[in-house]
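User: I've been trying to design a sequence by hand for this structure and keep getting stuck. Would you show me what you'd pick, starting by listing the structure so we're on the same page?

Assistant: Good idea, let's start from the same input. This is the structure you sent:
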């Protein structure tokens, strides 16, 4: 199976916050942001694997700041790590104020997807070839997160 670089499957989505997307505070509803994160992550994982994918885990979701009505939302996703049939995708959400040009990071999340074959069973995915220092750092960080998650899962099972 061939290798792919993170750049080959990177996804950048753009949305605009409309009144129907907001909560009682007049800022975007967190569930809407999570939906966009899942969509961008799934598109990225599907591009990497060239298969259908399913979300199996969302990890380390951090809402740093609110997004207001009328702001543009940029959602960037890229593959950080690949297992046999699973892929860890990092997603970063940024808010752009179209009137001032000010951009800020509002949300970060990590998702794990599994590639599926035509029968809905897990299938092997291309290996990941991180090239830049940033891609190598994200690869190593994803390995650490997976290790920590497994250790925590084992510890919880013991209790």
């Amino acid at each position: 199976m061939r290798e792919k670089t993170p750049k080959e499957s990177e996804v950048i989505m753009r949305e605009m916050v409309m009144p129907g997307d907001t909560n009682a505070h007049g800022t975007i509803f967190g569930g809407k942001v999570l939906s966009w994160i899942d969509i961008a992550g799934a598109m990225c994982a599907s591009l990497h694997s060239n298969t259908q994918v399913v979300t199996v885990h969302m990890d380390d979701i951090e809402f740093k700041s609110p997004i207001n009505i009328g702001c543009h939302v940029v959602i960037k996703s890229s593959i950080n790590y690949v297992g046999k049939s699973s892929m860890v995708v990092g997603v970063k959400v940024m808010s752009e104020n179209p009137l001032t040009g000010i951009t800020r990071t509002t949300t970060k999340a990590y998702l794990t997807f599994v590639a599926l074959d035509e029968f809905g069973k897990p299938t092997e995915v291309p290996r990941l070839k991180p090239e830049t220092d940033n891609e190598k750092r994200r690869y190593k960080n994803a390995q650490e997160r997976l290790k920590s998650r497994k250790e925590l899962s084992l510890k919880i099972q013991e209790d």
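That's my pick for every position. To get oriented when you compare it with your attempt: The first strand starts at residue 3 and ends at 4. Strands lie at 3-4, 11-16, 52-63, 72-82, 86-96, 103-116, 127-128.
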